[in-house]
């Protein structure tokens, strides 16, 4: 597949990211199995709360659950009082989206930066449809843009605009002064306790500090790592000459060269082991997402019923 044939395979436009709202709505549609269960009266509510938040204390009324009696207030006021709770339905969803130099690459499907932007867009739409607050941290090596979570369509559109404008058009000015570690450090400052956080990256730029930064973020939040991978990064063809874009122009390699194949395999194996250790130490669950696969299909296995962000 020639990825140069379509701009949408190398760079996702704002209009394309907005259109992904339809994919998010499709993910929220119930499956045939869910529909049958609901018809049979066996379907659990898809609106189950994420917890119960304290609302107020009032005088006890007949029928109130005695387990909710506030004994301190009861003793102080010499009359039985009960605690009232309300279902928590709104929470912050924070999307860390890596659009750095290593993501300006793709051999199949689309560039990694396109898949990252598309995944972030669908997750943002899903969160908004669920009534959650949506925010993001978008970084591309040169710049870092922070948008605090808010429950407004305008905020989602602003995030999508940032995603569209911070994708790369070339490898010029590809200094990586702002790294994944920078974004993770910023996320700790921005995220409220109990946030749902997705880190979208190829994780090629991890450092010895990354496990601690991820772990600190996961200590008080629910964190998932979505690792975008191009098939060529995991396994080279057995033969043929190929060119990869570099800062100084195309870099050619001969896939039939045994020494080159071995060096590639060794480097890939070392990075996979390092990355596995990073996620193990941080306690963060990681999911590999191939550039070959459509983003909505890639997200479906990690979402709850009705496209719920777990």
Describe the structure.
By secondary structure, the chain is α/β, with parallel strands linked by helices. The chain folds into two domains: about 15-30 and about 90-305, 3-Layer(aba) Sandwich (Rossmann fold); about 50-85, no CATH class. It has helices spanning about 5-10, 15-20, 20-30, 30-40, 70-75, 110-130, 155-165, 180-190, 210-220, 230-235, 260-280, 295-300; strands at about 50-60, 80-85, 90-100, 135-140, 145-150, 195-200, 220-230, 240-245, 250-255, 285-290. The strands form three sheets. It has a six-stranded mixed sheet with strand order 5-4-3-6-7-10, with helices on both faces. α6 (about 110-130) links the parallel β3 and β4 (about 135-140). α3 crosses α6 (about 110-130) and α8 runs parallel beside α9 (about 210-220). The chain is elongated, with a radius of gyration of 23 Å. It starts with 6 loop residues before the first helix and ends in an 11-residue tail after the last helix.
């Amino acid at each position: 597949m020639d990825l140069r044939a379509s701009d949408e395979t190398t760079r996702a436009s704002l209009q394309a990211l907005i259109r992904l709202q339809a994919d998010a709505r499709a993910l929220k549609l119930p499956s045939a199995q869910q529909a049958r269960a609901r018809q049979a009266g066996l379907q659990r509510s898809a609106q189950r709360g994420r917890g119960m938040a304290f609302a107020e204390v009032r005088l006890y009324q007949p029928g109130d659950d005695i387990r909710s009696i506030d004994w301190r207030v009861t003793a102080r006021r010499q009359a039985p009082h009960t605690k009232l709770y309300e279902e928590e339905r709104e929470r912050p969803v924070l999307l860390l989206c890596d659009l750095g130099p290593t993501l300006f690459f793709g051999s199949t499907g689309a560039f990694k930066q396109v898949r990252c932007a598309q995944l972030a867009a669908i997750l943002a739409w899903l969160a908004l449809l669920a009534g959650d607050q949506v925010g993001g941290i978008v970084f591309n090596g040169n710049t870092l843009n922070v948008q605090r979570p808010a429950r407004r369509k305008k905020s989602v559109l602003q995030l999508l605009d940032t995603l569209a404008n911070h994708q790369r058009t070339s490898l010029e000015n590809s200094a990586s002064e702002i790294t994944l570690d920078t974004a993770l450090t910023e996320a700790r400052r921005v995220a409220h306790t109990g946030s749902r956080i997705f880190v979208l990256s190829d994780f090629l730029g991890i450092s010895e500090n990354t496990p601690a930064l991820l772990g600190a973020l996961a200590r008080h939040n629910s964190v998932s790592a979505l690792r975008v991978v191009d098939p060529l990064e995991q396994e080279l063809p057995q033969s043929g000459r190929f060119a990869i874009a570099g800062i100084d122009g195309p870099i050619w390699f001969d896939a039939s060269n045994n020494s080159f194949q071995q060096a590639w395999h060794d480097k890939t194996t070392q990075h996979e082991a390092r990355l596995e250790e990073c996620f193990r130490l941080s306690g963060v669950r990681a999911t590999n997402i191939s550039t070959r696969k459509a983003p909505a299909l890639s997200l479906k296995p990690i979402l709850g019923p009705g496209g719920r962000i777990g």
